[in-house]
Specification:
- The complex is a heterotetramer of chains A (261), B (319), C (96) and D (537).
- With 319 residues, chain B is of the alpha+beta class.
- Chain B has helices at residues 8-40, 56-85, 191-199, 208-212, 226-233, 275-283, 306-317, and strands spanning 92-99, 102-106, 112-113, 116-119, 124-130, 135-139, 144-148, 155-159, 165-171, 184-189, 259-264, 267-272, 288-290.
- Chain B starts with 7 loop residues before the first helix and ends with a helix.
- Chain C is flat and about 50 Å long.
- By secondary structure, chain C is mainly α.
- The model of chain C has no long low-confidence stretch (mean pLDDT 84).
- The chains are: A mainly alpha (261), B alpha+beta (319), C mainly alpha (96), D mainly alpha (537).
- At the A-C interface, α1, α3 and α8 of A face α1, α2 and α3 of C.
- One heme-A (HEA) sits between chains D (144, 257, 260-261, 303-304, 322, 325-326, 329-330, 333, 362, 365-366, 368-369, 371-372, 377, 381-382, 386, 389-390, 393-394, 397-398) and B (26, 30, 66, 69-70).
- Dinuclear copper ion binds next to loops of chain B.
């Protein structure tokens, strides 16, 4: 009996497509924050004076430091991608780890900042806010907590994402294709050639007979310039895009909340 | 079928009829063409279709004509609306307070009613305020409607009632359980009768129209106990019954002395209802929430006086 | 289906560092400007500086400068939508 | 091109077997069918709520339920119909199935995201249904969740709102997938203007999904924050502005009505040329009008707020813009009708649905114009006139397009024909019932019957009674249609590759299609509605 079975291995590798997808997703993020920016601008317009006063409660230095941290993390992110594009995985790792550490640092700062505020009794629903804050100040802090909170969540997601990337770019590139038992039985009687010019050399030809339960083919790429798993670069680039967006949002949050005194 | 009883319906009806006529004409045209084509070019009769890719002139025609039509509709609608938003100088102002689930009308002389009384042929401006959530004040027969928005001070609408009679007032913004029952009447009476009623609030029953209408509760009359009148006017009985059946809130019957579990600042505690608790419930309804109920009781727009509260307590204790 | 992968554009490390320095300077600038009293103008100043900073990030860090036009067009569409949302809302808020 | 012997995607064995081969599939066809069945199931849930509502309204006073229950019924009816039936309806079910095939691709750009989007849909559905039975009581705010009532009420609003949030996420992923696929995966020769019009409508829809959905996402999230932390942004007692909530809500929810209707319009643009056997009239105008609807449609949200207390200036601007958005719809309608001219028309079930779509959508759209006229809107806002309007566009429009699509593509998806006679009976019942159900609502709405009313004044009784009777005819119609299709799944005659002699790519491959759609990616040379030489196979 001869059964021929074809199997096609198709790896989807449309880098531009992946990038378009990522950008589309970033647009939704942008508009998500855009929604709160609408609220911010309206209330800012209505209660300009109160916002002005409320902003004194925020720690400008803390905000500036966090801005610098995020900007720097954006730099290391870009550098990490640059390094990977040059097939320098070691350097890419160093920069990626720095990015993650800076992100964590940002959160630590944020934690202390929020903590200080909450200690002062400034949080939605607190006694202080209900008794002695007027509408504008209330809204300022309502927005402050919602927006920086939401941004913080994005930073956390970013950390997770970058950590996963750290794993991915360090995994030995390569893939294993498994032909399941049923399929393997269908292939009985056929031969598998190992190696490119194997046809002449009987040692390189394996017959699939009924003792074969499972066929496993593994393909390994080596990190030379030519065979470097390019799809990792695009993955890292896309994660980088996300991280830069988080940065851009902070670039706006910082002056709008901390610097309107 | 639909009642027209103010200066507004004329305008609105006109706009409506014009747009309706255009729409019906277009709908008829489209439907006719569809049916005609389906019959004329049915596969049985016409086996050879003729490919037509398009026709630029036609496309322009059916872009430009609808554009002109809709611009006309817009303009017509706008003109009608302009009238609704421009209140005549000499309009009489009445404050309307909406709360779950009752309306209250406050006249310039301080009088309060739960049915709206207006003189015939006089511009009336209603200033709309809400104590709790969104409501919407709607008089179908007058073709007026406007949302009643908490926190928004300048909500208003105006009309000039032309026909005597009493007409429905409805709430058209969903506001909770009894939304469908948040209705009252507007009663249009001749100017002279109105003047005498307005001058002497106690004399409300004198107005013929008002009497004939079974729903209309009047301004406080002498035979009603003061406590009940207060509870009615403040809108309490929209949520609290007097007969012991709990509705949106607990019933007032047997209120005092009742043991109750309340949640204060998230903590459950047991209390016994006394005068102090009653007063606190009115001034600060959110402070103690009765277990099983929602924190939706509004704060009265003007604080109740000590005397008023005493009167309420006295009445409730007597239930 | 098979698309030609566009040549990757590799940006020099130096450029990135320069951009970063630029961003830091702009941050300093916006803090400094906030200190002075420019009245109503200071908001717009802050937004302007933030805008320039994001353009830097967008064009260099996020490579928009080196990508096909499609991306720029899409970004413009989205920003335009956001601007429209805000301005139409203000037709209500500021004329109330 | 077609290989008739090939194994269909139903039989193809993948990594998993049994149920897992469905719920873990990344094949766009299987995901499309998953969506189709989930959506139909939830449609039946939503429709059951509607049936109960109509029963309650058959007479004034209490008929079967308490006010609270009624309020929850219309809320959940609205939420389910909008977020779970009509928004994903055509794009997620038919779009997923046919988008790649119609442009000659093997799958969508991100198959795994596609699966994730279905899972998010199911989670959203589960949350929405769970919110019915958990918490104090099911949400009772209406599908619009207007603040501050939605902040105050003790019902299970947060969970329902969160469900809507999750569903928004699912919708976004579908949008991302569709745009990328259309940009990157068209077969050689498939230029933008060689695409079937269904693709254009999906493309425009996807853009709205991407631009508008996040706005409602954040709005709903803030509503949840408001309820749990009291941040105050929508709460007037803390300085927030409830009207601003409405702006944010409608910035999404008006464009969302075009998410609902555009794919329906796309379906109609597919069906009409096929059964008139001639090319579509004014291809480019229909294609561009989809983009025009999508863009102008994003600017008109304020027409839901004419009496909300927004400024007079805003009222006027939004009214003007509202009228402008009608023009691209008008262009489409006229081009469809012109396509019939000198055709060779066959009145199959899909064609009947398409023609009735035009009729019902025209009624819905033209009444939409009345609502857009400021003077009239003041009177009919929040009355059952509006209810009639949106059922005409949503059910009469998108709903009929959905059923049209179901009957048009059924043979392709399942490889079986259905009983044409039963389908036509179902259509007739649905059409008659539909008008009996909703037309009276225009009348009583004009007379002043408010919406979301549990109880009503006696003068509205006749209208409500007729309407409720209409709902029974509709039930009959829907049951006939669905039972016929379900029966045909097993008993229907085998369908050939191209039973309608249509020219688009999906009809050039086997029914049901093989796993990889095309053994070889086709080279496209013909226009999508060029029927020369296309025969029934
Ligand atoms: C599928 C969904 C869908 C669609 C397509 C539409 C389409 C339109 N809608 Fe509708 N609408 C809803 C769903 C939809 N709507 C819903 C759900 C609500 C209520 C939400 C709620 O409050 O719960 C609503 C509410 C609503 C309101 C608010 C009413 C109120 O609450 O006060 C308004 C006001 O302007 C409006 C207008 C329009 C207009 C002008 C169109 C236009 O796009 C229509 C364009 C179509 C045509 C014009 C017909 C076809 C053309 C011809 C027949 C040719 C001739 C035409 C001309 C001369 C122009 N709609
Ligand atoms: C796609 C959208 C869609 C669809 C298809 C429908 C379909 C129906 N809707 Fe719709 N409806 C909305 C979307 C939709 N609705 C929205 C968004 C609202 C606003 C909610 C709000 O105010 O917040 C609304 C509100 C709404 C109201 C107004 C409530 C009020 O304001 O008080 C009413 C009242 O009649 C109504 C009735 C119906 C009916 C009778 C159907 C029918 O067409 C359904 C027809 C089918 C059947 C009646 C049953 C078929 C049943 C089976 C096949 C299963 C067998 C089951 C039984 C026999 C029980 N709906
Ligand atoms: Cu008040 Cu509805
Ligand atoms: Cu709309």
């Amino acid at each position: 009996m001869t059964v021929t079975t074809e199997f096609a291995v198709e790896k989807h590798s449309d880098h531009t497509g992946a990038k378009i997808g990522m950008w589309l997703f970033l647009f939704t993020e942008l508009l998500l924050f855009g929604g709160v920016f609408i609220l911010y601008s309206v209330y800012r317009y209505k209660y300009a004076q109160d916002f002005h006063i409320a902003a004194f409660e925020l720690n400008k230095v803390m905000g500036a430091v966090n801005t610098i941290i995020l900007l720097t993390s954006s730099l290391t992110m870009a550098l990490s991608i640059g390094a990977l594009q040059r097939y320098n995985r070691k350097l890419a790792n160093i920069f990626l780890v720095s990015t993650i550490l800076l992100a964590v640092l940002f959160l630590v700062n944020k934690y202390f900042e929020w903590g200080a505020k909450i200690d002062h009794g400034i949080y939605p629903g607190s006694k202080l806010m209900e008794s002695s804050f007027n509408y504008g100040e209330n809204l300022f802090f309502g927005l402050y907590y919602s927006m920086t909170g939401l941004h913080g969540v994005h930073v956390i997601v970013g950390i997770v994402l970058l950590t996963v990337m750290l794993y991915i770019i360090n995994k030995e590139p390569g893939s294993v294709y498994v032909i399941e038992p049923k399929r393997a039985r269908e292939m009985e009687g056929s031969r598998i050639m190992l190696g490119k010019n194997a046809s002449t050399n009987p040692q390189d030809i394996a017959l699939i007979d009924d003792t074969v339960r499972r066929v496993e083919i593994s393909v390994r790429h080596y990190n030379t310039e030519k065979t470097f798993d390019r799809s990792n670069i695009i993955k890292l680039e896309n994660s980088g895009l996300y991280w830069h967006l988080v940065d851009i949002i902070w670039i706006f949050l910082f002056p709008l909340f901390y610097l309107i005194t | 079928m639909i009642i027209d009883a103010s200066s507004m319906p004329q305008t609105v009806n006109n706009v409506f009829i014009v747009i309706l006529a255009i729409s019906v004409a277009l709908l008829a045209l489209i439907t006719f063409l569809m049916i005609y084509f389906v019959i004329k070019y049915h596969r049985k009769k016409n086996t050879k279709p003729k490919d037509i890719e398009g026709n630029l002139v036609l496309e322009i025609v059916w872009t430009v004509i609808p554009t002109l039509l809709v611009l006309g509709m817009f303009y017509y609608g706008w003109i009608g609306y302009k009238i609704m938003r421009e209140v005549p100088e000499d309009a009489m102002e009445i404050d309307v307070v909406g709360r779950m689930w009752a309306w209250e009308f406050e006249y310039e002389n301080g009088m309060k009613t739960d049915t709206l009384y207006v003189p015939q042929n006089k511009a009336i401006k209603l200033n709309l305020r809400s104590q709790d959530v969104l409501h919407s004040f709607f008089i179908p027969a007058f073709r007026v409607k406007h949302d009643v928005v908490p926190g928004l001070e300048n909500g208003f609408l105006w009309f000039n009632p032309t026909d005597l009679g009493s007409y429905d007032v409805l709430c058209t913004e969903f506001c909770g359980q009894e939304h469908a029952y948040m209705k009252t009447k507007v009663v249009v009476i001749p100017q002279e009768e109105y003047d005498s009623w307005y001058g002497t609030p106690a004399d409300t029953t004198a107005t013929g129209q008002a009497q004939s209408d079974e729903d209309s509760a009047e301004a406080p009359a002498d035979n009603i106990p003061e406590g009940l009148a207060l509870l009615t006017n403040e809108g309490c009985i929209a949520c609290h019954t007097l007969d012991g059946t709990p509705m949106v809130a607990t019933s007032f019957k047997g209120l005092f002395g009742r043991k109750q579990i309340v949640i204060s600042n998230g903590v459950e505690r047991r209390i016994t209802i006394d005068d102090e608790y009653f007063k606190k419930s009115i001034v600060e309804p959110g402070a103690d929430i009765v277990k099983g109920y929602d924190n939706m009781m509004p704060v009265p727009d003007e604080p109740l006086s000590e005397d008023d509260m005493k009167a309420m307590i006295a009445y409730i204790k007597g239930l | 289906m098979a698309h030609q992968e566009p040549e990757q554009h590799i940006v020099s490390y130096g450029t990135y560092v320069l951009v970063w320095l630029g961003l830091l300077v702009l941050t300093g600038l916006t803090v400094a400007v906030a200190g002075t009293d420019l009245g109503n103008f200071s908001v717009w100043m802050a937004i302007l500086i933030a805008g320039i900073k994001s353009l830097l990030v967008l064009f260099i860090f996020m490579h928009i400068r080196y990508e096909s036009q499609l991306f720029t067009v899409m970004i413009l569409i989205v920003l335009f939508a956001l601007v429209i949302f805000i301005s139409l809302t203000f037709f209500d808020v500021s004329y109330r | 091109m077609a290989n008739e012997q090939s194994v269909s995607f139903f039989e193809e064995k993948g990594k998993h077997t049994g149920i897992l081969s469905w719920i873990l599939t990344t094949d766009h066809k299987r995901i499309g069918l998953l969506y189709l069945f989930s959506i139909l199931t939830l449609f039946l849930v939503g429709v059951t709520f509607a049936f109960l509502m109509r029963l309650e309204l058959i007479a004034p006073g209490k008929t079967i339920v308490e006010p609270n229950t009624y309020n929850s019924l219309f809320t959940l009816h609205g939420v389910i119909m909008i977020f779970l039936f009509i928004i994903p309806g055509i794009p997620a079910a038919f779009g997923n199935f046919f988008l790649p095939i119609q442009i000659g691709a093997r799958d969508v750009a991100f198959p795994r995201l596609n699966l994730m989007s279905w899972w998010l849909y199911m989670s959203g559905a589960a949350l929405a249904l769970y919110s019915l039975f958990s918490g104090a009581a099911p949400a009772d705010t209406g599908w619009t969740f207007y603040a501050p009532y939605s902040i105050r009420t003790g019902t299970n609003v947060s969970l329902t709102v969160f469900a809507a949030f999750v569903l928004g996420f699912s919708s976004i992923l579908t949008g991302v997938n569709f745009i990328t696929t259309i940009h990157r995966m068209r077969a050689p020769g498939m230029g933008w203007f060689k695409m079937p019009l269904f693709q254009w409508s999906l493309y425009a829809t996807a853009w709205i999904q991407i631009i508008a959905t996040p706005v409602v996402g954040i709005t709903l999230l803030l509503l949840i924050f408001e309820r749990t932390f009291g941040i105050g942004v929508f709460d007037p007692s803390k300085g927030g502005d409830p009207i601003l909530y409405q702006h944010l809500f409608w910035i999404y929810s008006h464009p969302a009505v075009y998410i609902m209707i555009l794919p329906g319009m796309g379906v109609i643009s597919e069906i009409i040329p096929v059964f008139a056997r001639k090319t579509i009239f004014g291809y480019k105008f229909i294609a561009y009008s989809s983009l025009a609807i999508a863009s102008v449609g994003s600017l008109v949200w304020g027409h839901h707020m004419f009496v909300s207390g927004q400024s007079y200036t805003a009222d006027v601007i939004f009214s003007l813009l509202t009228f402008l958005v009608a023009i691209p719809s008008a262009i489409k309608v006229f081009n469809w009708v012109a396509t019939l001219y000198k055709g060779s028309i066959e009145l199959t079930t899909p064609m009947l649905f398409s023609l009735s779509f035009i009729f019902l959508f025209a009624i819905g759209g033209l009444t939409g114009l009345m609502q857009g006229a400021l003077a009239i809107n003041v009177h009919i806002h929040d009355t059952s006139f509006i209810v009639a309007h949106f059922h005409y566009v949503m059910f009469g429009g998108t709903g009929f397009a959905f059923f049209g699509a179901l009957h048009y593509w059924f043979p392709k998806m399942f490889g079986r024909m259905y009983n044409e006679k039963a389908a036509k009976t179902g259509w007739a019942l649905l059409f008659v019932g539909f008008n009996t159900l909703y037309f009276p609502l225009f009348v009583i709405g004009w007379m002043g019957m408010p919406r979301r009313y549990y109880d009503y004044l006696p003068q509205f009784h006749t209208g409500h009674l007729v309407s409720t009777i209409g709902s029974w005819i509709v039930i009959a119609g829907i049951l006939v249609l669905l039972i016929n299709l379900l029966r045909s799944l097993r008993k229907g005659a085998k369908a050939g590759a191209n039973p309608w002699a249509a020219a688009t790519l999906e009809w050039q491959i086997a029914s049901p299609p093989p796993m990889e759609n095309f053994h070889e990616i086709p080279e496209v040379t013909k226009d999508p509605y060029d029927f020369k030489g296309v025969v029934v196979r």
